[in-house]
Write a structure and sequence with these properties.
Shape: globular
Number of strands: 0
Number of domains: 1
CATH architecture: Orthogonal Bundle
Distance between the termini: 23 Å
Strand content: under 5%
Largest sheet: none
Radius of gyration: 17 Å
CATH topology: Arp2/3 complex 21 kDa subunit ARPC3
Structural class: mainly alpha
Number of helices: 7
Helix content: 55-70%
CATH class: Mainly Alpha
């Protein structure tokens, strides 16, 4: 009974985080540089990754990706074909949750009040998620969006600049916000079912 309750709680958190990440897509996120934009949804996905681990975070990312594809991507003409759409939405958004590989050491450090260590694992989680997501966008940009590159500019370089800058802006913002949350809202990262990790 308790195990079923825990699974339901995790599923609810996955749904809430996916919905929140999708809602953030409607907040202005352009940087002023053509095609370079921030992905605010990486922040709640990173929080879930550090709270529950890679599995739930990737599930939330996948759900977010499907929602973004259906609600924004197709309507805005950001889907060129099935393969590109698959890479840039379900795949890219799912791997944003890979930072959950730092879940256990982060939880132990946080529960032992090891601030610098918990920050380090949180940074690792954010950077891994951002890097994985934008590697997918880089690949898709190189292969599928090359025709939009300025004349004389290689497709791979165009994709690297656009997606590299997007990754930098997104990563810096996510690092700042997640670090602040770890410092002032520790409870967001602690779930009752993870309380025993510090003693394992």
């Amino acid at each position: 009974m308790q195990q079923s309750h825990q699974k339901l709680q995790v599923l609810l958190e996955v749904a809430i985080i996916a919905a929140f990440a999708m809602a953030l897509e409607y907040v202005p996120h352009k940087t002023g540089i053509s095609s370079v934009e921030m992905s605010y949804g990486v922040i709640p996905i990173s929080v879930l990754a550090l709270r529950r681990g890679a599995g739930p975070a990737m599930a939330a990312g996948f759900t977010w990706g499907i929602l973004d594809l259906l609600l924004i991507g197709i309507g805005e003409g950001s889907v060129l074909n099935v393969t590109q759409g698959f890479i840039e939405y379900p795949v890219a958004f799912t791997v944003a949750g890979l930072g959950g590989v730092f879940f256990k050491p982060f939880q132990k450090a946080l529960q032992k009040d090891q601030r610098l260590t918990s920050w380090a694992y949180a940074w690792g989680a954010v950077l891994l998620g951002v890097l994985a997501k934008y590697l997918c966008h880089f690949y898709a940009g190189w292969i599928f969006w090359g025709a939009y590159a300025p004349k004389g500019m290689p497709a791979w370089l165009y994709s690297l600049v656009i997606n590299g800058l997007s990754a930098v802006f997104t990563g810096v913002l996510a690092l700042v916000v997640v670090t602040a949350l770890v410092s002032i809202a520790k409870h967001l990262f602690l779930a009752k079912t993870t309380a025993r990790l510090a003693h394992d």
